[in-house]
């Protein structure tokens, strides 16, 4: 009888997703194998035709050979990780079929740190989009961690709580996909119910205007402060770095009053500004996330790595629990647990959990919660979870699950990437190196995936060599590649062309455009020669004890002119920075090198064919780099808007590039 029941259970069991092999996997493997063969021929050429002439020729040849070896190693690393790519096809309708009403409760965390860099109106849109998540509202709780401790952000949250009573039923009624009201009203083209659509839009715009007006004044009007007891907390705030815990339950999803305009329940909404004191380290974003915890592609290789946002975790994983084979969750038992205390009582009793001293002499930040001591707490925390035996699954739904906001100016983008690549490189040289920390805990391929991320910054040296040295050697008359007439030119041309052609095809297949791909190549070069370079050397300085860990919050807002240029796909420079000095100098260097090569080829008609034959690949490399840098030349020499390169950057780049060219020809 027991066996029959088990057989029936197996027949009734329906999977929640299906795993399929990625299309074109055989083609990818064939192309990868041919590229590998081409790389072998390139290595053979470098060894066989090692120059025996002058000292400069030998050292430049060795440097280029080492750069090519690094690129080959990094390509091999990424190719191995993609060898068995799979995709997951979810069956959402089966979720309720399997669990019925016993779905687990979900806590969604939103973090903000500065009301000037991350405006409250932007934070409100994020919170509202989370509250409108397609999930039973009584099982959904949204928490905002305000590390800026700003009453402006708190006021915006009160506005969001009120507007959600209209916005959530509107989203459900018209199946709104972009549940961020700012994004929805900016892009919505079909008005299913004009009167209701305009009414909700008017409510949103009025709310946005009130929030932005208050933010500009940097002060909450007295009549507003009298509307909620939470504002009294700021009477005791000394500064954003020195204040008590502020915890306010703005919507208590358990209460009968927590309902929208149609009588449907609302999700729980909580505002938290954890305690901060100058004498205690607050551990940046990781500390913020842990405070919230304390108060409530490469999928086939062992699971994707956790990097950034848009990720769901089981609470047990973040609390340091190790996976066990007999692990099973009784959702009914968990859902039956109810908290009967009032919201005001919970606010007071839970404040101690977000205090500065609560984590002292506890496993938080070490074995529990997000890990401290690194600006990329997401990466090391995700790897620790997987090392505890838990598996992760990557899901890329047709409808975007979340909408995020990223910096749209080039400088802020580079600053953000510098922080990321610096953080992961620090991990590689720490005890959290995936090849050491993950040894015998996670699959080797997953260790390699982490390593490709951790070694982003290390690409800067080889990239710099490829960008600078061939150009200078062209001016000096040193050939670094085989002649055009030589059969050895074939592997160089094949590897470069096929690798980039496949990249373009893949980009187009994923829904991109040719222009988007070109911009992607530009950003690839810009990041590797600027932010990755600074991240690499700053990491070295940290390892030597000459620099300290810091955390930079990047701006998520831009004025109207900047946004307009961004929509026109114009790169926003507009500020002086050492990164721009480097970028502009490298661009001018390759321009001068290309002009010098063209001059050398055209000065003497008899030597024209010989120059092109001997230096053809070097000239082509310089011309490709010039093409990639066209937006830089435009910003340096032709643009008149505020997004152009500063004049000081233009002068410095020309001087530095000319000096390098003269030294090369000396």
TrEMBL record:
One GO-annotated biological process of the protein: cellulose biosynthetic process
InterPro entries xrefs: Cellulose_synth, Nucleotide-diphossugar_trans
Record carries keyword Aminoacyl-tRNA synthetase: no
Binding site for UDP-alpha-D-glucose: 118, 147
Gene Ontology terms for molecular function: cellulose synthase (UDP-forming) activity
Protein name according to UniProt: Glycosyltransferase 2-like domain-containing protein
Record has 4Fe-4S as a keyword: no
Transmembrane segments: 26-47, 59-77, 455-475, 573-595, 615-637, 649-665
Cell compartments where the protein resides: Golgi apparatus membrane
Keywords: Cell wall biogenesis/degradation, Glycosyltransferase, Golgi apparatus, Membrane, Transferase, Transmembrane, Transmembrane helix
Active-site residues, record numbering mapped to chain: 147, 378
One cellular component (GO) term of this entry: Golgi membrane
Its membrane topology: Multi-pass membrane protein
Function, in words: Thought to be a Golgi-localized beta-glycan synthase that polymerize the backbones of noncellulosic polysaccharides (hemicelluloses) of plant cell wall.
């Amino acid at each position: 009888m027991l066996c029959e029941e088990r057989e029936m259970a197996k027949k009734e069991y329906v999977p929640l997703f299906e795993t399929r092999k990625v299309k074109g996997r055989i083609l990818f493997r064939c192309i990868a194998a041919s590229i590998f063969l081409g790389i072998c021929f390139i290595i053979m050429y470098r060894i066989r035709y090692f120059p025996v002439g002058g000292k400069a020729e030998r050292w430049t040849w060795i440097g280029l050979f080492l750069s090519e070896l690094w690129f080959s190693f990094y390509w091999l690393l990424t190719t191995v990780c993609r060898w068995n790519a799979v995709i997951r096809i979810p069956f959402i309708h089966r979720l309720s079929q399997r669990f019925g009403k016993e779905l687990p409760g979900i806590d969604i965390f939103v973090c903000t740190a500065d009301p000037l860099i991350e405006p409250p109106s932007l934070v409100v849109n994020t919170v509202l989009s989370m509250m409108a998540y397609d999930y039973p509202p009584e099982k959904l709780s949204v928490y905002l961690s305000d590390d800026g401790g700003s009453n402006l952000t708190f006021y915006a949250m009160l506005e969001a709580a009120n507007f959600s009573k209209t916005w959530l039923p509107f989203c459900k009624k018209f199946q709104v996909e972009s549940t961020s009201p700012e994004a929805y009203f900016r892009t919505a083209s079909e008005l299913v119910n004009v009167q209701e659509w305009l009414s909700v839009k008017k409510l949103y715009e009025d709310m946005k205007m009130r929030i932005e007006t208050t933010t500009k004044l940097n002060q909450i009007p007295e009549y507003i402060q009298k509307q909620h007891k939470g504002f009294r907390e700021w009477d005791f705030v000394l500064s954003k770095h020195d204040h008590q815990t502020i915890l306010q339950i703005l919507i208590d999803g358990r209460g009968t009053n927590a309902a929208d305009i149609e009588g449907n329940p609302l999700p729980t909404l909580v505002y938290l500004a954890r305690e901060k004191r100058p004498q205690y380290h607050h551990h940046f974003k990781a500390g913020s996330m842990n405070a919230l915890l304390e108060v409530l592609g490469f999928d086939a290789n062992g699971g994707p790595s956790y990097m950034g946002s848009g990720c769901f975790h089981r609470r047990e994983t973040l609390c340091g629990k190790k996976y066990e084979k007999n692990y099973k969750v009784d959702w009914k038992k968990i859902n039956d647990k109810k908290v009967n205390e009032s919201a005001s009582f919970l606010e007071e009793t839970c404040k101690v959990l977000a205090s500065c001293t609560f984590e002292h002499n506890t496993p938080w930040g070490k074995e529990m919660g997000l890990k401290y001591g690194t600006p990329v707490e997401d990466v090391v925390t995700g790897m620790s979870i997987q090392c505890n035996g838990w598996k992760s699954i990557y899901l890329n739904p047709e409808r975007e699950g979340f909408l995020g906001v990223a910096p749209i100016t080039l400088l802020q983008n580079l600053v953000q990437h510098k922080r990321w690549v610096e953080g992961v490189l620090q991990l590689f040289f720490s005890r959290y190196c995936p090849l050491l920390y993950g040894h015998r805990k996670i699959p080797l391929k997953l260790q390699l995936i982490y390593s490709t991320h951790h070694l982003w910054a290390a690409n800067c040296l080889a990239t710099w060599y490829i960008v600078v040295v061939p150009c200078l050697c062209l001016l000096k008359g040193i050939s670094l590649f085989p002649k055009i007439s030589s059969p050895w030119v074939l592997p160089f041309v094949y590897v470069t062309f096929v690798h980039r052609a496949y990249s373009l095809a893949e980009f187009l297949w994923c829904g991109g455009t040719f222009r988007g791909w070109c911009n992607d190549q530009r950003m690839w070069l810009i990041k590797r020669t600027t932010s990755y370079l600074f991240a690499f050397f700053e990491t070295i300085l940290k390892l030597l004890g000459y620099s300290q860990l810091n955390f930079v919050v990047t701006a998520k807002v831009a004025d109207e002119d900047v946004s307009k240029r961004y929509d026109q796909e114009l790169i926003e420079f507009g500020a002086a920075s050492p990164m721009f000095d480097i970028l502009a100098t490298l661009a001018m260097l390759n321009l001068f090198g290309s002009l010098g090569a063209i001059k050398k080829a055209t000065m003497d008609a008899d030597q024209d064919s010989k120059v092109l034959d001997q230096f053809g690949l070097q000239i082509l490399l310089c011309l490709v780099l010039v093409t990639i840098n066209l937006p830089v030349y435009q910003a340096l020499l032709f643009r008149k808007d505020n997004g152009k390169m500063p004049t000081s950057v233009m002068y410095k780049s020309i001087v530095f590039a000319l000096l390098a060219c003269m030294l090369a020809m000396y």
